[in-house]
From TrEMBL:
Pfam families: peroxidase (PF00141)
Plant heme peroxidase family profile domain location: 29-328
Family, as annotated: Belongs to the peroxidase family. Classical plant (class III) peroxidase subfamily. Belongs to the peroxidase family. Ascorbate peroxidase subfamily.
Positions of the catalytic residues: 70 (proton acceptor)
EC number: 1.11.1.7
Reactions the enzyme catalyzes: 2 a phenolic donor + H2O2 = 2 a phenolic radical donor + 2 H2O
Gene Ontology terms: cellular component: extracellular region
Chief place of localization: secreted
Cofactor: heme b; Ca(2+)
Gene that specifies this protein: LOC103495580
Name this polypeptide is given: Peroxidase
Positions contributing to substrate binding: 166
Role played: Removal of H(2)O(2), oxidation of toxic reductants, biosynthesis and degradation of lignin, suberization, auxin catabolism, response to environmental stresses such as wounding, pathogen attack and oxidative stress. These functions might be dependent on each isozyme/isoform in each plant tissue.
Disulfide bonds: 39-118, 72-77, 124-324, 203-235
Length: 328
């Protein structure tokens, strides 16, 4: 049979159809209750273990939330933030932005407890997503159902953390492009920034705003004058060690007060203040401040699910790591 142009076209269409079909099959989605048959107790085990640690050290909850963010923004939510460096390959863990990441011991304890019940079944990437949810709930924040079914990656590269994690001095346009590049929206940006309602920061992450910001010996004009004075008392120039509460007075409580602070020009980082530089993010900040966070809890739950979908490995991609610090 001769291959006429028409036949060629039909064959071409068929090929396109088959390849788009296999694309759909390849890109499986996460699902709530993914482990209900193969490890029914997993969410309970995670919650129980996290509770033990948060009870002893409430401030660890914030660190655990941040860890999921750092995981998802570098190579997708694939547990790569947990991998240890190798002699010839410094991992994300050892990149500058994680300077202050804490809570690896909690993740290891959770993983060990889960492995005991169902060995080789639950990914480290899913464990991070479940831990983040529990950490927020235990801090008084919203609760949501976590879609699971992520698999673990095998690669972690320090340099990629530096490129993919927005720095605290980011302006609104680079924050937007960072979030857009991960498939997140402007709303996700302003909502997820509300995470800074819990936790602490090193002075080094914002002290550029306090001393000689524009080269005239002054503070960042976008920072409330009196707040700058208070922060200078806590953070002397070049102090590398000191940490401060990001939401003074309620830094262990997941509430809407971040938006009250930002609306009063008391956001700690330039990236927090930058939310006032876009009309939409500014409107959201002011709305939450005015309505005592009327929609923040529900919005946060939704945006966390969006963040948890970034670049996930599913199906037969990646692996289920036995220990979170090491590929199998
Ligand atoms: C929008 C861009 C963001 C920037 C520029 C940023 C930057 C930072 C910085 C510089 C710190 C302090 C680190 C230190 O000096 O110790 C921090 C802390 C924190 N961040 Fe973000 N962050 C961003 C978004 C997020 C997101 C999306 C989440 C969670 C979904 C998050 C959760 C946290 C938490 C909970 C802490 C406190 C950690 C602790 O107390 O150990 N951040 N962030
Ligand atoms: C925002 O920051 C980026 C990266 O540092 C820079 O290239 C850009 O010029 C800045 N934009 C504005 C409007 O300041
Ligand atoms: C402030 O910055 C300007 C310009 O970079 C510099 O000339 C000056 O020496 C700095 N002052 C202090 C006190 O560091
Ligand atoms: C917890 C952790 O691994 N932190 C590392 C982050 O990166 C610095 C280097 O920039 C390391 O010294 C820390 O150990």
């Amino acid at each position: 049979m001769a291959i006429t142009p028409k036949l060629f076209f039909l064959l071409f269409l068929q090929l396109m159809f088959i390849s788009s079909l296999s694309n759909i099959v390849g890109a499986q989605e996460l699902a709530v209750g993914f482990y209900q048959d193969c490890c029914p107790g997993v969410e309970y085990i995670v919650a129980k273990t996290v509770a033990q640690y948060v009870k002893k050290q409430p401030s660890i909850a914030a660190s655990l939330l941040r860890m999921h963010f750092h995981d998802c923004f570098v190579r997708g939510c694939d547990g790569s933030v947990l991998l240890n460096s190798l002699p010839n390959n410094p991992a994300e863990k050892d990149a500058f932005p994680n300077l202050s990441l804490k809570g690896y011991n909690v993740v290891d304890a959770v993983k060990a407890a889960v492995e005991k019940q169902c060995p080789g079944v639950v990914s480290c990437a899913d464990i991070l997503a479940l831990i983040a949810r529990d950490a927020v709930r235990m801090s008084g924040g919203p609760v949501w159902k976590v879609p699971t079914g992520r698999r673990d990656g095998r690669v972690s590269i320090s340099r990629e953390a530096l490129i993919n994690l927005p720095p605290p001095f980011a302006n609104i346009s680079s924050l937007k492009s960072s979030f857009f590049s991960k498939g997140l929206s402007l709303k996700d940006l302003v909502v997820l920034s509300g995470s800074h309602t819990i936790g602490v920061s090193h002075c080094t992450s914002f002290s550029n705003r306090l001393y000689n910001f524009t080269g005239k010996g002054d503070a960042d004009p976008k920072l409330d004058k009196y707040y700058a004075i208070a922060l200078k008392k806590k953070c002397k120039p070049n102090d590398q060690k000191k940490i401060v509460e990001m939401d003074p007075g309620s830094f262990k409580t997941f509430d809407h007060s971040y938006y009250t602070l930002v609306s009063k020009r008391r956001g700690l980082f330039q990236s927090d203040s930058a939310l006032l530089d876009d009309p939409d993010t500014k409107a959201y900040v002011q709305l939450q401040a005015r309505t005592r966070g009327a929609t923040f809890a529900a919005d946060f739950a939704e945006s966390m699910i969006n963040m948890g979908n970034i670049g996930v490995l599913t199906g037969t991609d990646g692996e289920i790591r036995r220990r979170c610090g090491f590929v199998n």
